[in-house]
């Protein structure tokens, strides 16, 4: 069984954190080339970036609302994001999706907090059927 990009990234991260980084990149590329797995490199790099952000307590939060967020609304949503992800360095992005009807959805690489009217209505509908 061949390792996944996530497994390669974790091994690479572990070796580099132990100070064994001399020629580590070139050795990884040579190893992947010999095994015919160079197509995994973009996924490995993406996972390494994610691991680095995690190590630095950095989190990107995509916030979706039904309408364009006003500056006051963005401030309130930012405070809510800080409550949801305490102690983390947050990078926020805002977008609009009219189908959510109201409320907000907070999504990270590993979590979803959905406080939208659409989700609430769906849950209410399930309770009545």
Labels describing this entry:
2 domains, four-stranded mixed sheet, 4 strands, 129 residues, elongated, alpha+beta, 5 helices
Class from secondary-structure proportions: alpha+beta
Shape: elongated
**Biggest sheet strand line-up:** 2-1-3-4
Number of helices: 5
Concise account of the structure shown:
This protein has about 130 residues and is an alpha+beta fold. It has 5 helices and 4 strands. The protein has a 4-stranded mixed beta sheet.
Give an account of the 3D structure.
The chain has 129 residues and is an alpha+beta fold. It has two domains: 5-55, no CATH class; 59-128, no CATH class. It is 50% helix and 20% strand. It has helices spanning 5-17, 24-34, 41-55, 71-84, 117-128, and strands at residues 58-65, 89-96, 103-107, 112-116. The chain has a four-stranded mixed beta sheet. A hairpin with a 4-residue loop joins β3 (103-107) and β4 (112-116). α1 (5-17) crosses α3. It is elongated, with a radius of gyration of 20 Å.
